[in-house]
Amino acid sequence: MLTDTHCHLAAAEFDLDRAEVLARAWAAGLGRIVVVGESRASAERALALAAAEPRLSVTAGIHPHDASGWSDEARDWLRAALRRPEVVAAGETGLDYHYDHSPRDAQRAAFAAQLALAREAGKPAVIHAREADGDAAELLRAHPDVVAILHSFSSGPALLRAGLDLRHYVSFSGMVTFRNWHLDQAIRDVPLDRLLLETDAPYLSPVPHRGRRNEPARVRHVADRIAAVRGMPVEELIAATGSNAARVFRFPTPSGSTCP
User: Fold this and answer.
1) Hey, which residues does 56 pair with through a beta bridge?
2) Helical H runs in 82-179?
3) CA distance 222 to 236
């Protein structure tokens, strides 16, 4: 099924028309949306949305921008959140050396701590890495038992190789449609069983919607572009990436069990 594996649907940008955004997503053929909780507040908003809509799943974590706020209290909150069945992954967490909104040592400490909590919970971790490929790869190698999703991938070959060597998943966003996108080889290099689709909405709206708020229905543009780069039918690509998402996030099935 068509799946948006990374969407900030709880963000204020959707407050006025969230129901309509979801209606467009289901009409576009989406079967599941992963709503990212990159802070305690956003995770709690995402959980409230998921309580009303079973086709939504949730992540919970602390973004590297806010890593300086990592504390024992944050650790205890995240440990408890990851026990909830609606929460399918830790994150997004990781490293952002472009903006450096938090000191780099604080980012690394919070990232490592969240990887450890993901391992403890038996859930994957959603990884944000910007201009921090070396340190991100080092921390992933230090936690080889954690399954990671390299979200909205636009990094270099070193991080991609580290992720693939560890059998992690790689998710691509609307950036693949941008004129300045130059990583088609990365799209080809990711094994089909480790490939995921996302929007990162409300950000990174794909062509032909550049400059406007993004939304989950537009993940189809990402699928079209990736299928073209890989030279495969788009429906085959959608089926494979949907199966991958169900596997890594262990989405509940209609019977109430989780995907194996």
Assistant:
1) 33
2) 104-121, 133-142, 157-165
3) 14
Distance CA 227, CA 213 (A): 24
**Is the alpha carbon torsion for 146, 155, 205, 184 positive or negative?**
negative
Q: For the segment 20-78, what is each residue's pLDDT rounded down to a tens digit?
A: 999 999 999 999 999 999 999 999 999 999 999 999 999 999 999 999 999 999 999 99
Length of the chain: 260
Q: Amino acid letter at 249?
A: F
The domain spans of the chain are: 2-249
pTM of model > 0.85: yes
Half-sphere exposure (CA, 13 Å, Cβ side) for 125? 32
Q: What is the largest CA-CA distance in the chain?
A: 48
Rounded to whole angstroms, how far apart are CA atoms 44 and 12?
13
CA 29 – CA 148 distance, rounded (Å): 26
Distance between CA 218 and CA 90 in Å, rounded? 24
∠ CA 205-4-15, nearest 5°, is 65
Judge contact between 30 and 7, C-beta under 8 A: no
Q: Which regions of 49-204 does DSSP assign to beta strands (E)? A: 56-60, 87-96, 125-130, 148-150, 169-172, 195-197
Q: Distance (Å, rounded) from C-alpha 210 to C-alpha 218?
A: 11
In CATH, the architecture of 2-249 is Alpha-Beta Barrel (3.20)
